[in-house]
Amino acid sequence: MSTPHTPASLPSPTSEPGPRHARWLELFFDLVFVAVVAQLSHGLHGDPGWREFAVFLGLYFPPWWMWANLTVSANLFQDDSARRRVVMLIAMLCLAVMAAAVPEADGDRAPAYALGYAGTRLVLLALWWPATRYPAPRTLPRWRPLTYCLLSGVLWAGSAAVPAPWRYGMWVALLLAEMVLLLTARGRGIPGPVHTGHLVERVGLFVIIVLGESVLALITSTDHTWTAAAGVVAVLGFVLLAALWWSYFDFASTAAERVIGAAGTREAYLLARDVGGFLHFFVTAAVISMAAGLATAVEESGHDHLARGAVWALAGGLAAYHAAHALIALRFGRPLREVTVWALPGIGIPLLVVLGADVLAPWLVVLLLAAEAIAHLLYATTIRSRRQTAGTA
After folding, report:
1. ω into residue 137 within 30 of 0, thus cis?
2. Cα-based distances in Å from 190 to 23, 178, 211, 292, 388
3. With 70 as the cut, is the pLDDT of residue 118 above it?
């Protein structure tokens, strides 16, 4: 439906910040990320070294970045036309190509990975180009989608013909250029207010995807290693994931909805960009890493200790998870002293577990991390109860 300020031929920008939920197309679109996450997590199984971790982060960021961009476009435009559906399905196909290329994306399948990402940039151009025809003040300067989407897509496609290792340097440079363009825009040209509930829901659904991969890793690894010791490690791993789920959706997502919802249009967009686009990359990457570490812990449950790379994937992942949430809390304006109280133990205890990797049995590693996650949850619950009691008084 057109608005008095928008021609009928253009997708309607959001005009009311009322309740919105993810559409069926968005949920279908997320299925391709189940494959992306599974492929990336598999690359960290066993005893990964620094190269494997670097490749993991490097290959995870482009699909995550595209997911964040497409999520924002769905948030800002209320458009369920056939055109948009076809465009989103094309993006899904491009990301599926990237997922299939992940196992050898640092080798023979790099051209396919680059071409898949190039296709998603062109999809993004198709979604944002109509915003360049909105009447002022909602008009988006045409040079931004032409550079951010079209030029980037052309250069990514061109990188498929560039030999390694120069190809990977080109990827890094292009991603940095995209981020610079986004940061310098500072919300100018945004066609309407951010639907906070929809955005928080979408990010939460992605967190569910990575937690789901962790649960699946526990189940499949237990199936491969059907022993009592593997069962103990799997149960402890599930307790760890359950505590993370509980704390995230009781505290992190509710805080995001409250803070972003109370902000003005541009500030809400900037908060969504920083927290949902940048910092949640580290939140979700940490959980994917933990999924790989948990799978290895189950498979090596009969050993005296875990390989150090597996402990880094698991305990280091938990430390990174807490560090990312500490940065999110600071971005939301929480006092440094308040954040430090829970962030330091949340980061320090997993790192101490890494130091003891050579003497800790797999079940003990997972037990200590699960105990830390439970303590973290209990602390947050206690603080909230005290604040609620004080507010009532």
Report:
1. yes
2. 21, 17, 32, 38, 37
3. yes
